[in-house]
Write a structure and sequence with these properties.
The protein has about 170 residues and is mainly alpha-helical. The protein folds into 2 domains: about 70 residues, no CATH class; about 70 residues, no CATH class. The protein has 10 helices and 5 strands. It is elongated and about 65 Å long. The structure holds heme C (HEC) (2 copies). One heme C binds next to α7 and α9.
């Protein structure tokens, strides 16, 4: 430290802040890569996309650990390689985005008691194409069906439609 003559307990606030940061870095092993991703986001991505958490929550899905957006996993992987990100940071960027993306968590808690996991449900009951879903049993359009199922609000119906679409396209 720059002031070896002073014990840490009486260190000025800035030094104490520094000690706290160092302590934090020591206890979180992935922080190096994580920090890279945040730094890159702030300097290269934020200008177009705003905050990480809002962007990921609105546009991205974590389906079984795979990142999906408008593009599905493999296509998105290729897209990211051509999209402003230094090659060495791709992995940490994907992890950061995955951590903030939407997931099947809400399906598990709000639908799972009757339908099992989203993956099983899609596999057994639905015909999922790129932008539409049809019931295997009844041939009904699922976007329409959801608007009348379980009193879902229009926003929630859209959320779950999107979720099923991404799960269906993830395989
Ligand atoms: C100059 C503006 C700009 C910058 C800078 C930028 N992006 Fe984008 N990004 C876009 C646009 C426009 C799209 C939508 C294009 C599309 O989907 O075809 C997009 C789409 C995306 C998507 C979603 C793709 C999908 O399939 O839904 C991700 C993820 C993404 N950007 C990540 C990043 C990251 C990470 C950075 C920084 C390293 C970054 N972007 C920097 C403009 C930008
Ligand atoms: C209490 C049990 C229950 C819960 C919870 C439930 N559902 Fe259902 N769901 C059903 C039943 C029963 C059907 C069969 C058809 C009907 O209701 O007309 C069904 C049918 C469906 C279908 C059409 C399946 C097909 O084969 O045509 C979809 C899609 C669906 N549910 C989605 C959801 C979503 C998304 C949630 C969570 C927000 C959810 N369900 C929560 C009981 C439930």
């Amino acid at each position: 430290m720059s002031q070896p003559d002073k014990p840490a307990t009486t260190a000025p606030p800035r030094l104490r802040g520094l000690i706290a940061v160092i302590a934090l870095l020591l206890i979180s092993p992935d922080s190096g890569a994580e920090r890279d991703a945040w730094t890159i986001w702030d300097s290269r991505c934020q200008q177009c996309h705003g905050s990480v958490s809002e962007f990921a929550r609105e546009r991205l899905w974590n389906i079984d650990g795979q990142l999906h957006g408008k593009r599905h996993a493999e296509e998105l992987r290729q897209f990211l390689h051509r999209h402003y990100i230094p090659a060495t940071a791709i992995q940490s960027m994907r992890e950061m985005l995955l951590a903030h993306a939407r997931s099947t968590e809400r399906f598990d808690s709000e639908c799972g008691s009757c339908h099992g996991t989203a993956a099983e449900f899609v596999e057994n009951s639905l015909w999922v194409r790129r932008d539409s879903i049809t019931s295997l049993a009844t041939g009904k359009d699922i976007a329409e069906f959801l608007s009348t199922h379980r009193n879902l609000s229009p926003d929630d119906a859209e959320f779950f439609f999107d979720l099923l679409l991404h799960v269906g396209n993830a395989r």
